[in-house]
Design brief:
The chain is α/β, with parallel strands linked by helices and 146 residues long. Helices cover 44% and strands 28% of the residues. It has one domain: Transcription Regulator spoIIAA, CATH 3.30.750.24.
């Protein structure tokens, strides 16, 4: 796929998912293309009241066009409970089933420790910054699919 087609696909994907954030109580989720990658930016708390919103957005994203590399940016998240963990793991499975890869941006020490205690860091790459996560994109994504 050429870079112009890839950009167009990424924009179409963002449009299908919606560029305005979903807000469910203390959670908002927005999706944007970043080259051939897709960034899912989460703000607020991922808990029993809001985990379904995150799961639905990840479902929509994969259904619209299976992106090769999805970065779930949790740098603006202040709390994650077991429902949130479950939603993230299910999202990982959906992305992987579509031949993609999901990475996480986690800069909060307590949330990072939660992922480590639950061994999620053994399944998903944890990054401290969005730039670090995007730099870790698979070679075919980082090179524009060439």
């Amino acid at each position: 796929m050429g870079s112009a087609q890839a950009q167009e696909g990424a924009v179409g994907m963002a449009d299908a998912v919606g560029s305005s954030p979903d807000v469910a109580g203390p959670l908002s989720v927005s999706v944007r293309p970043e080259g051939l990658s897709v960034v899912v930016e989460v703000t607020g708390e991922v808990d029993i009241r809001s985990a379904a919103v995150l799961g639905a957005r990840l479902d929509e994203l994969v259904a619209a066009e299976a992106p090769p590399y999805v970065v779930l940016d949790l740098s603006r998240v202040g709390f994650v409970d077991s429902s949130g963990l479950g939603s993230i793991v299910r999202g990982h499975k959906r992305v992987r089933a579509a031949q993609g890869r999901l990475a996480l941006v986690v800069d909060d020490a307590a949330i990072r420790r939660l992922f480590e205690m639950c061994a999620i860091d053994r399944v998903l790459r944890l990054h401290r910054t969005l730039a670090e996560a995007l730099a870790d994109a698979p070679a075919d994504v980082a090179s524009g699919g060439a």
